[in-house]
Amino acid sequence: xxxxxxxxxxxxxxxxxxxxxxxxxxxxxxxxxxxxxxxxxxxxxxxxxxxxxxxxxxxxxxxxxxxxxxxxxxxxxxxxxxxxxxxxxxxxxxxxxxxxxxxxxxxxxxxxxxxxxxxxxxxxxxxxxxxxxxxxxxxxxxxxxxxxxxxxxxxxxxxxxxxxxxxxxxxxxxxxxxxxxxxxxxxxxxxxxxxxxxxxxxxxxxxxxxxxxxxxxxxxxxxxxxxxxxxxxxxxxxxxxxxxxxxxxxxxxxxxxxxxxxxxxxxxxxxxxxxxxxxxxxxxxxxxxxxxxxxxxxxxxxxxxxxxxxxxxxxxxxxxxxxxxxxxxxxxxxxxxxxxxxxxxxxxxxxxxxxxxxxxxxxxxxxxxxxxxxxxxxxxxxxxxxxxxxxxxxxxxxxxxxxxxxxxxxxxxxxxxxxxxxxxxxxxxxxxxxxxxxxxxxxxxxxxxxxxxxxxxxxxxxxxxxxxxxxxxxxxxxxxxxxxxxxxxxxxxxxxxxxxxxxxxxxxxxxxxxxxxxxxxxxxxxxxxxxxxxxxxxxxxxxxxxxxxxxxxxxxxxxxxxxxxxxxxxxxxxxxxxxxxxxxxxxxxxx
Length: 591
Fold this sequence. Notes:
By secondary structure, the protein is an alpha+beta fold. It folds into 2 domains: about 1-20 and about 105-380, Choline/Carnitine o-acyltransferase, domain 2 (Chloramphenicol Acetyltransferase); about 380-490 and about 510-590, 2-Layer Sandwich (Chloramphenicol Acetyltransferase), CATH 3.30.559. It contains 21 helices and 18 strands. The strands form 4 sheets. Strands 11-7-6-8-9-10-1-16 form an 8-stranded mixed beta sheet, sandwiched between helices.
């Protein structure tokens, strides 16, 4: 009953969010500019400095000069990209939309949020305020992703996936998909007069499902969405040849969201709950637990466990982490407010169970998906650092810019663990521009390397260390300003590479040079995602040799979620977590 009560309040508040998404400011926002070729190449050479020797840098400078020659291949690609920019809302988003990645969306693409353990018995109500327009530095941000967050779904394709946004149609969805015991149900959440169902009405519908869908021998079709994209695409094409299957798949895709009612996971000590909850939100725990009680292609899944587990899983192809966290905070705040509404006595339609006709080859694919997801579950490792020694207030009091300070701590921690510097980036919101998504701020610089080396040198005075730290922070702030203003190095080069591919031009030497990978083959992917509700932002490495670090930075404390793959024996999330904590404490001593 506690589980069902929380679920119905969550659903009510998703509907509330769906009705108050702010108006879009697409027409008022500028399009993202194409940086000049000269500027990008100059910055590229600066970014190279920490990673290459003098001779290699000299060779790369020659390649850059060749690329910049008037009338050369660089100018040709630049003109093609500028022409594309004139005819699209955002030329960068076209090349970085995650849809051509053929790895499973579980772990490699989807992102999630992990709430503190909930006491569902005391959480009621809905919220009626609107979602305010986001601003950065007094400038409005693109709100388009909010309209794409609900009633959307990723569709598997053989070489590239696609995304459908049913919320923008003339007949938007009026139901959610409920996942329970690895079965799927369509649950209407609006009355015939267009008003949302009350909490009591939703409870009646959930009771119907929970009492009628005890565990059965039904094949867990949802686990197919955890396969690599090419395998899932082939299964999908076979499934839609059958009319009932096609209708069931369409029903899930068109629904507002998926709400997953999970069975309880194995009990762990309270101090291990956060880590266990993060894993449950990210992948469901494996084929024996809740991984089949998912539709990983869906834009938003809210996950509620019998044991108080609560969080979400979001398709990165539909929205970025900051957008998902806004929805998460909205729902969390809504649960804490009391709602008392007398329910009408009108009869409610029975929730419709979705049926699939499973052939022998699909059944075989399901077994393969079970093995695949179990390997991911075994391979993926998370470590969580709750750092309560200081936060933004302390850093600001010492005239340190908080986010760049954290980035330098991460740089120091990585060096202490691996005894080398690495290519790294911090995710940046590009929503100052129309249809903007995510940019990449270079975190490793000559200044950050100088600070790290000096900090570990016992012969250096604290005053010198502080001076180098401030210089590294200023460089990171400048790189951040460049990225969010559209002067992106990685995005620009990626756009030029796409131009070469589209026009069948041989890839220029500047992109095949060994130096290129040293700057952009990232070993550290980091992002700051703020939460008002105590929700932990979670993401996974996009490749096996990379760490991912998500963090929230509050007034007096911080939280870090670090992830790595165990099969890469060089990386260890627990060891890096300890190094981050030590770096933060050690850096405090010099302030």
